[in-house]
Design brief:
Length: 121
């Protein structure tokens, strides 16, 4: 785990605005943007700005940050049009289907049908 940002990490670059994304929310600690390959009408990625590989590497130091991310999920889902509920997915590690090794929460919602999400290769 590193608690800094990494030039080689896609989500660090997006968080630092060095790579483009469709941002819907940002503060000092968190950035939220649309997934580039949405699996549902609403598909957001909720990302801490500090680099944490996955939940496995998160520590009690990040407890407030993780709680904040959880509470942002319903707010942003609703604001982006998922008014009838949403699904929260956290792929964790290669075995969990995580392809981008920077912690992120998937927020999915909106009218069905949804595309079947990849479970990793
Ligand atoms: P994971 O499998 O790691 O849980 O999910 C990674 C997600 O990042 C995938 O849903 C994928 O579509 C999304 N993604 C990959 N590259 C980019 C990108 O450059 N921009 C955005 N907005 N999403 C990306
Ligand atoms: Zn990163």
């Amino acid at each position: 785990m590193a608690d800094t940002t990494s030039a080689s990490c896609l989500f660090c670059r997006i968080a630092q605005r060095q790579a483009p994304s469709r941002v819907v929310y940002e503060d000092d600690e968190v950035i939220v943007f649309h997934d580039i390959h949405p699996a549902a009408p609403v598909h957001l990625l909720l990302v801490p700005k500090q680099h944490i590989d996955s939940l496995t590497e998160a520590s009690s130091d990040q407890q407030l940050l993780l709680g904040k991310m959880l509470l942002l999920a319903p707010q942003l889902a609703r604001e982006q049009g998922a008014t009838d509920g949403f699904r929260l997915i956290v792929n964790n590690g290669r075995g969990g289907g995580q392809e981008v090794l920077h912690l992120h929460f998937h927020v999915l919602g909106g009218p069905r049908p949804w595309r079947h999400m990849s479970v990793g290769r």
